Amino acid sequence: MSDPIKLSSPATKEFWEIPVLFEDEHLLAINKPPGVLTSPDRVDADRPNLMKLLHSGIAEGKPWAKQRGLSYLANAHRLDFDASGVILLAKTKAALISLANQFGCERPVTIFLAIIPGTPPYPKWEVDAPLGPFPGRPGQFRVDPKEGKRARTEFEVREQFRGNTLVQCRPFTSRMHQVRVHLKHWGLAICGDRLYGGRPLMLSDLKDKYILKPGKTERPLISTPALHAEELTVLHPATGAELKITAPWPKDFTVAIKNLRRHAPGIG
User: Fold this and answer.
1) Which is catalytic among the residues 3, 80, 205, 208?
2) Considering the entire predicted model, what is its pTM?
């Protein structure tokens, strides 16, 4: 596996060491951490974003860019600011066109995992509901049957716990906040997703006889929405062979699942 890509934002004094999941002469796949935009924000163009930082690194000849001989890097898809997981980047325009066509053909390319409260009514279900901006709430979306854009997601229970569920999400389209809004539409807002009313995942809700040390404040097991792009599958732009890329879970996601399995295991 290639060395990680090190990015920093002088404006916000943030630093990211981003793992590389796959790389060849055509493609570069990375594991995006939560809390960083993929591309420029429509409301605030000055917010740090992954593509701008990568392009700056290439222009400045950063070590990670020089050792790869990078002169071009483009994204055919994106992840939400709060989501982590696989992002696949093209090193050539031909690769970008191929990826863009695959992401636009309404077949599930990325598999997300989400931790949601409660128990879904079915082990497997589908939401086919158009999405559009939420009037008066910048950066928020809603199901909009009249003016929304087509959006379809397939959901399946991966693991059931007492009071929470790990769900596999397969979006067939690539709308902003699609997985989050489709789950919210079913009354299953993702744990920690404050934008859509998701409650925090707290250890005190899982562990019997939980005791908080004096003077301490309990923090959620996951500080961001519990949403991770675990797997991405495409046809390689040059060879046509199926390429499957998997992103390890973030540390807090792993800790949350470990605590759910230990303190709130499912029945049976």
Assistant:
1) 80
2) 0.93
